[in-house]
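Task card 7
Instruction: Convert sequence to structure tokens.
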Amino acid sequence: MNLKPFLILLLLLTTSSLVLAQDEDMQARVEYKVNNMKNVLKLNDSQTIAVEPIIKEYLVKRSSVLQEVAGEGIVDHISVKKTLKALKENEYQQLSKVLTEDQLKKWIEKENLMATLNPDSSESSVDDGPSLGMDGASFKF
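Output:
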């Protein structure tokens, strides 16, 4: 009996199951963050619809950056922080087209507070937000 086709099929099924689980996890993270924004910022329906792809793009790119460096022995933390800073600034720039100035300011303050209070959370594990504001970023090294 040749096990090779069976093993290939098993590998494909396992891989597709992992990808599906990651996709579901990412969608859950996006929905959680968008719902949080909706509640905190009192977003209207059109704002809620508009922020979802912005949040998803940021979370997907951030996750990709962190996964890329996860397997490396030595990580250039400064480079990673610069990359994450640029992603966050891009997210805020895109959100500024959807949110009012007050809503954006409130959201930035909330994210900064949460990153400060939860330094070990997945959203702040590389210190990519605590001192980021509408006028730019200032990281503490």
